[in-house]
Amino acid sequence: MSLFQRSRSVLLAVAAAGVVVASGVAVIGTAEAATTLGASAAEKGRYFGAAIAAGRLGDSTYTGILTREFNSVTPENEMKWDATEPSQGRFTFTNGDRILNQGLSNGSKVRGHALLWHAQQPGWAQSLSGSALRSAAINHVTQVATHYKGKIHSWDVVNEAFADGGSGGRRDSNLQRTGNDWIEAAFRAARAADPAAKLCYNDYNTDGVNAKSTGIYNMVRDFKSRGVPIDCVGFQSHLGTGIAGDYQANLQRFADLGVDVQITELDVAQGGNQANIYAAVTRACLAVSRCTGITVWGIRDSDSWRTGENPLLFDNSGNKKAAYTSVLNALNAGGTTTPPSPSSPSPSTPPQPGGACSATISLNSWNGGFVATVRVTAGSAGLNGWTVGVTLPSGTAVTGTWSASGSGTSGAVTFRNVSYNGQLSAGGATEFGFQGTGAGPTATPTCSAG
Ligand code: 9MR
């Protein structure tokens, strides 16, 4: 279980018991409404997050609100290409790690933002083109996703690649000029580097059914039909003084393609409608079972990139605004739907082994490769060590394994537990994974003790 999964189960367990922890005070009783955004969202199986800046972590008003209210963080700038690879092949993760550790130490999820984007590229990448840029970009995805492997809830793998206006097509950029398949190449590289992270496409001006959101919808549908690994779509939701009437319907049509949806950068211009628009976004997310969380793009108005627009939930002094109360009320009032388990891919019905153990496999495949997640479940006696056998189709080769020790790369291959996951209590389960080239295995794996 990764750190964030562990924290999430703790949060959910707390919520299920009707215990709300706010400002260090535990309030017991099912009738009590949650008093923070994160606790209330967690009761609905969702997260409520904020974009944060490493440079503000020394401000105690800021971190006080952050740790009290939010259970997800996104680095506002610290994991972007210019920040993480300022010169080619030299990676700097100091500030990204500060955001990561701030989130993990508070039991929060961490959204990774953003592996590839036409903006905020380092100068050296801006001056590249063609195959040199393509390989540099894919190397960037691989290196950054590998550095954060196992710790990121969702990655914005590609950000803002579609054009505004009515074309519904791609935005021109140096990345786009390397070939239309740059987005799927990025998603495949991200999956291979961090199989546990949900992989999102993220964009703005997509907050309703329009030409741009439909262009993205068609890309996601195509990716799903061809097995390109994509798990989620981020709707930035930088909103003005109105909200599209079909905001929720638009989220739902993406969810119906088989991806999660997330509100990733919410902020709303201050005006008569600010509180109502925030509430409408919150209700829309709660009404779509695959809408797994909301992130606001900053904490106090003074932290916002939208200088002078006061678009956030806390004023410059850190006081809760009317918009805050309206979001909290909407969270407390709503949400009869629960998002699917975050541990996907995993089988929906757990196996009930009669023998020592059993194993099931789930695959994320694409043309030419796959990532396999194998779930090992102990039988009625518990286990002190396990071995899983997998038969690979001809032409398939294993290229990497995690949380198990593999033997063989083609044909009949076996995987044994590593030191920390061999002991399973009766009925207990653990997961390991491997990736490979060629077609993924289709036969049920064998499992034996020892
Ligand atoms: O909030 C970010 C701001 O501090 C940066 O200067 C800016 C640089 O382009 O990026 C802002 O964040 C953007 C996000 O990464 C992607 N969607 C739009 C956000 C607001 O511009």
TrEMBL record:
Pfam families according to UniProt: CBM_2, Glyco_hydro_10
Domain GH10: 31-330
Reactions that this protein is recorded to catalyse: Endohydrolysis of (1->4)-beta-D-xylosidic linkages in xylans
Stretches the record annotates as Disordered: 331-356
EC assignment: 3.2.1.8
Top EC class of this enzyme: hydrolase
Gene3D superfamilies per record: 2.60.40.290, Glycosidases
Biased composition (Pro residues): 339-353
PANTHER family with a match to the protein in the record: BETA-XYLANASE, GLYCOSYL HYDROLASE
Record's protein name: Beta-xylanase
Source organism of the structure: Actinoplanes sichuanensis
